């Protein structure tokens, strides 16, 4: 069904719902006392502050209290608090993979994210983008393409992390948390007015420690520990019509990595080609018997991330109708993680047949093989600046914004090093000088310089007192220069890659890098949105919007040859999207009720998808000529050094579509009891698969599903009950949160669905003081659930999952003043 027909059909439903809501509103107002009122929630989804009930976007908001009562301590905790959002880590919690409406980013390489996170409205880098959950004002999740008003073009959505701003009142808080697995956390914030109504600063800090809950029976310490620290300094200055807010934000994480649990093997696969299928199968069964809280690591893992951010926001108000705003951002990211992403060790095979590869000699004593191990280092610096002129014209009928945006991201030293090895084998030969060899090469180096430039205009014009038309248009140019190649000296499992700077790559310094070259690509697009907004009554708002969005193309690495050369780069992805919504507050028999519903449908062309399994196995080439065996070598040249990084290729797989509904219900049953229900119900289709001239890719294209970790149904419910305690405490607040998700699809495997229940009790204002106490239990029933997939490849022959935390409990004490 076309976008226009879908819009018309759902528009009738919205109109019918609006009429029904008007009738309910009128009837309830006559016979109720209306003593209870639902809280108004303020968002900046359109870059200005407004009520969430009058913004034409599907938006989920967690304010300061909600973040605290939902026990949000990390980026991935957000997943169980907001429906339709997948936030599992791509290599750990410090490198989150944001997924909304089936749109995400490639796990390897230079793909632009389909969902961008923002800190204080400054876009975060694609890698190492975890924002510390410290002293936050709110978190807003915007669903659907956001390519007109926000800095980066996205096809899936945006996540806005808004820190608490300085104010002119002396105050602050300090808190301590203790819990299971030796959890210890200290956090606090201090707000200091420096000059009355002119200058104020705010300081916040956090230190969070917890032992690992995944037992490592292999090399290294236990996994899934927490060791993070964060510090933020903010300064607010207001002089006349000029307002300036400066933020310095620092965070650091350093732990021993995360647990991976293998769950299945497949045959025939590369494991058979490597001669280790039986050994792997036995190990997978052994670990499955132990359970998902066990890992047998082949090497000492780690996860490190250091992030420094500077934000400066300057606003000058000419008059009530005209404001100039400049938003500057600069940040550096130093991400380094080394996960054992198959959850298995290494395997020793006996004598391999003579003459397997002439480079390694005619006879072998034995070989040691690892399946999939990884090391990713990303050191990036990013500068961005956005200039906006906002105004009100035509007797207050037109609200408009005109702006320009610039971003440049470039290597900070070594750039990105991806040392993912797939089916890496170390051979021991009988020939002096040829004691070792490898079927999969060393680290692959990416030096990416990316620039994005955009100009945009957006406006909303009041056609009547209740009906307005909204439109926006944005022109974007994305340029990138990528120098890439492979380590000249292959490294065996656990060893460090070679470190060098960008000039060595561009100058083709063969002492440290081989097969190096530069790839340049430019893409541009005009994105737009057009919509109608109707304030049916003061409490009922309905809207319809059509949007065109895009995300830039990119490149694969290293430099390909042979049959893969045509897939060195991939084209931009574009989306045409509609969204129709109805947001209503009414009163039924004295009970305030809020119902929000939105329908969405998007058509994606040139959809970008990941293809796994593109790696030369140890038996891909025959002896003595080095001729590729059909179906075993991705490019036909018998050279593992130029195989795709991690065996993964990003390419334009075809045309896709996604549609569904987002639902929100909230009722303030009594002054003390509230109920909230949220749901996302969605479906995804691959409408067309593009033909491929490469037989290797054509054979595996069914596994290149562009909907990474797509869930059809997600439900979330919250019951909140408060009890006044008189002289004992101001109130006791009890929260019960329930989360349920259907299975998630990733390539050839599916993550099973699961349900979680979290409980929390907060005792506020003990004995009339600023002391609060809280007790929380997450995953009350101690469910064993797969949070994300670490590896899913039938051609390779293995599925491995990353499991979510077990039952976690803790006690929190806080003093506020």
TrEMBL record:
<keyword id="KW-0675">Receptor</keyword>
<protein>
    <submittedName>
        <fullName>TonB-dependent receptor</fullName>
    </submittedName>
</protein>
<keyword id="KW-0408">Iron</keyword>
<keyword id="KW-0798">TonB box</keyword>
<keyword id="KW-0406">Ion transport</keyword>
<keyword id="KW-0472">Membrane</keyword>
<keyword id="KW-0813">Transport</keyword>
<feature type="domain" description="TonB-dependent receptor-like beta-barrel">
    <location>
        <begin position="241"/>
        <end position="780"/>
    </location>
</feature>
<dbReference type="InterPro" id="IPR000531">
    <property type="entry name" value="Beta-barrel_TonB"/>
</dbReference>
<keyword id="KW-1134">Transmembrane beta strand</keyword>
<comment type="similarity">
    <text>Belongs to the TonB-dependent receptor family.</text>
</comment>
<keyword id="KW-0410">Iron transport</keyword>
<dbReference type="InterPro" id="IPR039426">
    <property type="entry name" value="TonB-dep_rcpt-like"/>
</dbReference>
<dbReference type="GO" id="GO:0009279">
    <property type="term" value="C:cell outer membrane"/>
</dbReference>
<dbReference type="Pfam" id="PF07715">
    <property type="entry name" value="Plug"/>
</dbReference>
<dbReference type="GO" id="GO:0006826">
    <property type="term" value="P:iron ion transport"/>
</dbReference>
<dbReference type="InterPro" id="IPR036942">
    <property type="entry name" value="Beta-barrel_TonB_sf"/>
</dbReference>
<dbReference type="InterPro" id="IPR012910">
    <property type="entry name" value="Plug_dom"/>
</dbReference>
<keyword id="KW-0812">Transmembrane</keyword>
<keyword id="KW-0732">Signal</keyword>
<dbReference type="Pfam" id="PF00593">
    <property type="entry name" value="TonB_dep_Rec_b-barrel"/>
</dbReference>
<keyword id="KW-0998">Cell outer membrane</keyword>
<feature type="domain" description="TonB-dependent receptor plug">
    <location>
        <begin position="52"/>
        <end position="158"/>
    </location>
</feature>
<feature type="signal peptide">
    <location>
        <begin position="1"/>
        <end position="28"/>
    </location>
</feature>
